[in-house]
Each structure stands twice: as structure tokens, then as C-alpha cells.
Amino acid sequence: MIPIARKLALTLLVAFAALPATAKELGPFNITLRYSPQESVGTSVPTLMLGVSDIPVRLSIEDGRTIADPAVIGDSTDDDDRVWPVRAATDLLGWANEVLLKNAGEWGIRVSDSAPFQLKGSLLRFMVNESNKPVGSVYNADIRVAFRLLDSRGNLLWEGNAAGDATRYGKSRNEDNVNEVLSDALKEAYATALGDTGLQNAWLGKSEPMAVPAAAPSMAAAMSPDELLAELLKLKKQGFGADLLVDFVNQKSLKTSLSADDMVKWKKEGMPQDVIQAALKRAP
Question: What are the 10-residue block averages of pLDDT along the chain, 284 residues in total?
């Protein structure tokens, strides 16, 4: 016979063991950015026309993202599928510029502050996503950059966009894995842009300066937040992704800023955070 006190203790122990464990609050995932491309995944190198490497250029990158917090560079999920922001603990623009100069030098491109041409880049998208799995995580990076080539007088010679992406399996909340996919994606975006034949022809003086179009008159009156949301829901139901929805928002104007109630309503309707952030920029 098991004594009553011992039996009661065993019963309580079994009951407590059956209770769900309290989820650990992981908090934001802070990343110190380091350039660590994985050559085993793939090598991105632009093909340069004859003579391009003989003409120096000034290089720079600025932030063209429409987000509320520039330090946020993605999101991470935990075992309970809660989403935590991934944040850059170091200067993102400084890092992006450093990587651009490093890559340009390795690719044989001459860089000089007194060069006759200036290649100005703008980060349009810089995102990494960690999707937690039963064992480890899957990391995805998506980077988009716009570039403009200007002559010494500021005339626009060429403009274009380039994208880079990378995916790899790794450890949960692993800083090295984040840096690996971001480095691969950024290197690919830079290589795609610098390898563009239109850019290189302009660089070599084989094309005329581009005409800057006059500001076009507004094709439609400014919209209310509800009107814009209705248009976005039409597009979303047809399968358009967040990037295209952001582009659509960037072409519109709002009569008034989004209120807190508007933002809650947009979120309940399934609008991605990037779309809401873009709409916040469209108010007068």
C-alpha cells in the first residue's frame, strides 16, 4: 500500500508535468551585420564590357525603404509561431556601402571620389525571414536595389533596378545564418546591377543622357484610407503580393493620414505591414 501522502504527491507531480510549458519570451532578434557570402551556394560576378574597368566611378547607397523603423530588417518565428522582429544592431547603410565598395574592387571596377560618373544606389527592400521548423530554421533573404548613373553635371545616363535572394537551412535564431543569406542576396543584387549592359553602355559613353520627364498631372484625386483599402483588397483577392501592393500604394495620394483605427482595420483585412507603412507615407 502506498501511503496517502506519497500517493497525493505523485498525483500532483503527474498533474504539473501535464501542464503546458510557459513559452519563453525570446524578444527581438538583434543582428551584428557581417559580410559572409557562401561561395558553396553560388558566386555572383558581373561580366564587364571591355573598357568599363578603365573608367572610374563614385559609388554610394542610400536608404529608400518605406518603413517606420529603419533598424528592422525582417522577422523571426519561435516554436509557438509568434513573430519577433529581426533588427540590425549595426549601421545598415554603412554596411551596404562597405559591401558595395568591396565587391566593386574585387570585380575590377575603379572607384574614385573624383570620378566623372556617379552610380547612386537606393535600398528598396532589405528583408530576412527566419521560419522556425521542428529542428532548426529556414532563412530567406530578399533584397532590391535601384541604381542611377549620373555624369559630372548631374545628367541622368541610366537607371534600373536589381534584385537578389538567398535561402538556406540553419540553426534556430542563428546570427551567422542571417548574415550568410543577406550577404549572398546583396552580392547578387549588386552583381546584377553592375552587369547590366545598359548601364555599361552609358558608362562607356555609348548612349545619350536620358530625358527627365516633366511631372505628370495627377490622374486621380487623392483617396481616403477606406477607398485605398478597397482598391488594395481587390488586388489582394486576385493574388497580387505585398511588393506589388506597395508599388500600387506608392502611386497614390491620401486625403488624410491613416488613423489608429484605420491601421487596425487594415491589419484585420490582412494587409501586410509593408503595405500599411507605405500608406502612412502617402498622406499630405
Answer: 56 49 69 87 82 93 88 85 88 95 95 92 92 88 94 90 92 94 95 94 85 46 84 82 83 84 87 87 76
- Whether the pTM exceeds 0.85: the reply is no
CA distance 57 to 35: 23
176 neighbors 122 (Cβ within 8 angstroms): no
Here the cell at position 118 is 556617379
Cα separation of 243 and 50, whole Å? 36
How far is residue 236's CA from residue 245's CA, in Å, rounded to a whole number?
Answer: 8
DSSP class of residue 267 equals H
Task: Determine the angle formed by the axes of helices 242-250 and 225-237, rounding to 10 degrees.
Answer: 150
Cα–Cα distance measured from residue 100 to residue 83, given in angstroms and rounded to the nearest whole number: 31
DSSP state of 87: E
